[in-house]
Specification:
The structure is a homodimer.
Chain A (H helix, E strand, L loop, with lengths): L25 E7 L1 H7 L11 E7 L5 H11 L3 E4 L8 H4 L8 E4 L11 H4 L3 E3 L3 H19 L5 H5 L3 H9 L10 E5 L3 H10 L5 E5 L5 H6 L3 E2 L3 H7 L2 E4 L13 H4 L6 E5 L8 H10 L2 E5 L19 E3 L11 H16 L10 H6 L2
Parallel strand pairs in A: 1-2, 1-3, 3-4, 4-5, 6-7, 6-9, 7-8, 9-10, 10-11, 11-12
Chain lengths: ~350, ~350
């Protein structure tokens, strides 16, 4: 366990205040690993001031007992959490000494950090919000454009002798995104960012996501599809960005995939397990669709998966989320939210129970 | 030489009207190959009507003499031209029997179709205009996003065992386009379409193109760079879309390429010969830049070019122009322009001498 007083770049993070602060100060506990601290806070965390007393736990060598002990001893009102933060169990949350009122989560889903019970007890929770969904939407656009232009075949075509080059280049049957019909399976933050990035392409966007009210789609200039079957049958590009729930798991199976139009594009930047991967492999083997995947049923994708060697498939190693250069922005965003909390101002990118339950 | 009366799909194009039409009709000569006719006019060309008499020449087996003979015999007022149309030489244009007043060019540059003299003699010329520049801009966006996310390394990373996968994925140092500084070398139609497609990415765009007035950049919300050196030094993404002229040929050389920032992206969707390719290879070999190319000094890129095997280079086989599915739109656009000409209405995407001389 390490304490932190002032953590400027290059400075030893183990400087400890050694105290629980003054009675005027609120206490914030940081449960992050070195890699998270370095990439999200390249300029270091702010030091203690009259409002706030900081303690940093290095999550790398943190066991469950030390975690509980730190929470109990330091009695933080604010928790700054991330991918590596140990879970706040229901038992911890229900303990009389537990004082956390605000969980400022650096990254996306808090399902590995908090139980649903945290919301019932009124804990405030924020995450990286739109800062994360825009890069995912950007990656969906990249995979879509790459599939339309047959990127997986470029390398082969580039190395052909002249006569074959001309023939095979014509056989790429490249397509543009301009004016296409695009279907979004899922209508969360990522889908809405995709809608925003696609504006200049003058596409017709429809979407299906069980339980989302019709008016909500229309507010975002998106046509609600009557059914997921209609979505798959009527669009030239399908982007998968639905949340993983017991209902959606494996929901994109053989019957839906058979509805895809010839030359259409299927992209998944959501959760691999929403798609029946065996059915997808079989559909790709039948040919005439173009597929871009960032997520898989099992990650990393097993080396013996047939997906590695299929034609017209572009695979990325689950990198749709915030790119490396976005992390410092997420760090600053979290610090801004902490300042807002201290000033009693409304927080940005607040996560409620509904969002928690729908999160991927 | 083939004549055409009505060319519906599947119909024999050799149906000939056998006449030069009536005195009320204007005459239009089509000089295109089968592949152009099939992809630009999948529903066929319209037939003769009270306003227009058509004649179609198959350019596949057309020699210079037959070309001149057809122009002289048919005396067209309108020429529908494309990639495969033989050139109208100065000699043809200056002949007393030459009557073409409007050249409706299906595709882009007319430099292989018309001499500059055509403009001096007042010929009206149109081409595919924005229909072509949008797909090129789209391809520039694809190459840019692919370079930022290190697409050329994905395949290798995907096939690594777990521990190496995690390390190498982190080493991708992926970047987003959101909020980046983007520099455009060139400020023609393609550059302006890039500006339009990049709107939702909230980038800062600057541009350099010799001779373009400062106000013209500003009208498009683009910051004029004071020099090409400033452009290359101050941006994180450089997109090359400058016209090829004696002044620009080889103008992007070692000194400019040395100004590129670490991790920056260099994309070329303009003309290969604007860049000194040997200097580019040397700059790439020094590392820490990411390069996406669609055009080369010599095309197709020679098989022994070092570009084929360099790390962090993505090569596409000169496919930035209109994708296959855009061609029917270009065909309809040309027919619309012909109708406009017949009704004495202003033409769309008119090409003047300045645009002709600047065209790539």
């Amino acid at each position: 366990m390490r304490n932190l007083h002032v953590a400027n770049p290059g400075q030893d993070r183990s400087h400890a205040s050694g105290t629980n602060g003054t009675s005027d100060q609120k206490r914030i506990l940081v449960g992050l690993g070195d890699a998270e601290l370095d990439t999200f806070f390249p300029a270091g965390l702010p030091g203690d001031d009259e409002r706030l007393c900081w303690k940093v736990l290095d999550t790398k060598h943190l066991d469950d007992d030390s975690w509980v002990e730190a929470l109990r001893e330091f009695e933080p009102e604010i928790l700054l959490s991330g991918w590596s933060t140990p879970k706040l169990t229901e038992e911890i949350i229900d303990s009389p000494w537990f004082k956390v009122k605000y969980c400022c989560h650096l990254t996306g889903s808090v399902r590995n950090t908090l139980p649903a019970r945290a919301f019932e007890k009124g804990m405030l929770v924020t995450n990286w919000g739109r800062l994360a969904s825009t890069p995912v939407a950007e990656h969906a656009l990249l995979l879509t454009l790459a599939c339309l232009r047959r990127l997986p075949s470029w390398k082969t075509v580039m190395k052909l002798p002249l006569d074959e080059f001309i023939k095979e280049r014509a056989d790429l049957h490249t397509r543009t995104l301009i004016g296409k019909r695009v279907g979004l399976h899922g209508f969360g933050f990522v889908a809405r960012e995709i809608v925003r990035l696609l504006k200049p392409f003058e596409v017709e966007i429809s979407s299906y996501s069980a339980g989302v009210p019709t008016e909500f789609f229309r507010e975002h200039d998106v046509e609600p599809a009557d059914s997921i079957e209609e979505l798959f049958a009527n669009n030239e590009v399908i982007i998968e960005c639905e949340a993983l729930t017991p209902e959606t798991q494996g929901s994109v199976g053989a019957e839906l995939l058979d509805l895809l139009q010839p030359k259409s594009v299927f992209v998944n930047v959501g959760r691999g397990a929403v798609v029946d991967e065996d059915a997808l492999v079989k559909r790709i083997q039948r040919g005439d669709i173009r597929v871009g995947l960032d997520v898989y049923s099992e990650e990393p994708l097993p080396l013996d998966s047939q997906l590695h060697s299929l034609k017209d498939v572009l695979l990325s190693p689950h990198i749709a989320g915030p790119t490396e250069d976005v992390r410092p922005r997420c760090g600053l965003f979290a610090l801004e939210n902490i300042s807002r909390y201290l000033r009693d101002e409304p927080l940005k990118s607040q996560v409620d129970l509904v969002a928690y339950l729908r999160s991927t």
